[in-house]
Design brief:
- There is one protein chain.
- This protein is about 25% helix and about 15% strand.
- It contains eight helices and twelve strands.
- The strands form four sheets. The protein has a five-stranded antiparallel sheet with strand order 3-4-5-7-6. The chain has a three-stranded antiparallel sheet with strand order 8-10-11. A two-stranded antiparallel ribbon has the order 1-2.
- The protein starts with 15 loop residues before the first strand and ends with a helix.
Length: about 350
């Protein structure tokens, strides 16, 4: 079945047609006369051209699969590929919304050709598997760099790790740096939240899980969101009000989600309590936002500046929100002027 995302939005320019030497990667890989799209044989780290992702998974090199976790659209495993540790994600079939499952898989590849220290790197992706590895519950497999087993959600709510202002602002700067890079390449993530930010052993944050992402046209800064994904994609507590209303997508939707995430980093509390439908209604109709009044962290001079930045990030007026580059500048100033 053809990808709902245009081929030109997914494939790096470096990928070239060559005779098929591996398992068929995906519908994107099909070319005329029985050839497939493939990159040169890859190894990891210094032994590969790290800017490329492969449209072929070399299954004989994939070993030692160990479960790490699972989410709404997929399960993640720790594995060994060409002798190095990687993360393997299987995108689940959704029996209630099969199109949404397929779109989630292809959306995962919107940033596959991008390389940045604050974005999880895609190594390979495929929709075809050998018979001895078939999984009826999965529609596709993605191999990614293995960042670690920690995410911000676990650090904020499930650990006793110290998370003061300095560390919280350092983490938020990592996220903003990743967003700036994504937006500069016309990719919007659309599901920025603590659970989708992995933290490496070096305490570096990397944006993960692009199953809700969208590639905008270079000619315009907004795009209408797919009606098939509008009600299932993203997390309601972090979703910008214009998206809740079904309006156009822009990079500023990620800035809104970032604002909620930064508030969580600084307070270590959930952004909202109460019924989901009430929160959805109140965010749109009454500009409900997490409280800036009930937390000591926002009473210092730097805390007040953080509060001002948050108020801009989650403004109901899209034009009033800072862009990702502006956001990064503000955060860097906050870190310098403690």
């Amino acid at each position: 079945m053809p990808s709902p995302i245009p081929v030109t939005r997914l494939l790096p320019k470096d990928i070239y047609p060559c005779p098929d030497t591996g398992t068929c990667s995906s519908p994107l890989a099909q070319l005329a006369h029985g050839s497939t799209l493939q990159v040169p044989a890859q190894r990891l780290h210094g032994r590969v051209a790290s800017r490329l992702w492969s449209s072929v998974v070399h299954w004989k090199q994939l070993r030692s699969v160990e479960s790490v976790g699972s989410g709404g659209f997929g399960s993640v495993y720790k594995a060994e590929y060409f002798g190095e540790t990687v993360a393997l994600k299987k995108v689940k079939k959704c029996t209630k919304n099969k199109l949404a499952s397929r779109q989630s898989f292809w959306a995962e590849l919107n940033a596959a050709h991008l390389r940045h220290k604050n974005i999880v790197r895609v190594i390979a992706a495929t929709t075809c598997v050998p018979a001895d590895r078939e999984d009826e519950s999965s529609i596709g497999t993605i191999l990614m760099e293995f960042v670690g087993s920690r995410n911000l959600q676990q650090i904020i709510y499930g650990s006793s790790e110290q998370l003061g202002e300095d560390r919280g602002l350092k983490f938020s700067t990592d996220i903003a740096s990743g967003l700036r890079y994504l937006h500069s390449h016309s990719v919007v993530h659309l599901d920025i939240k603590p659970a989708n930010v992995l933290v490496s052993s070096e305490d570096v944050c990397k944006i993960a899980d692009f199953g809700c992402s969208l590639k905008l046209d270079h000619e315009c800064e907004t795009s209408a969101i797919s009606p098939h994904l509008s009600h299932v994609c993203g997390t309601y507590t972090h979703r910008a009000p214009e998206l809740l209303k079904g309006e156009d997508v822009s990079p500023k939707a990620d800035v809104f989600s970032f604002g909620i995430t930064l508030w969580q980093l600084l307070t270590r509390e959930p952004p909202y309590t109460g019924d989901r439908q009430y929160v959805l209604y109140a965010v749109v109709a009454h500009s409900l936002r997490p409280s800036l009044q009930d937390h000591m962290v926002f009473r210092s001079e730097r805390g007040k500046r953080c509060g001002d930045l948050l108020s801009r990030c989650w403004s109901a007026e899209v034009a009033c929100r800072p862009s990702a580059p502006e956001l990064l500048q503000h955060l860097e100033l906050l870190r310098v002027h403690a």
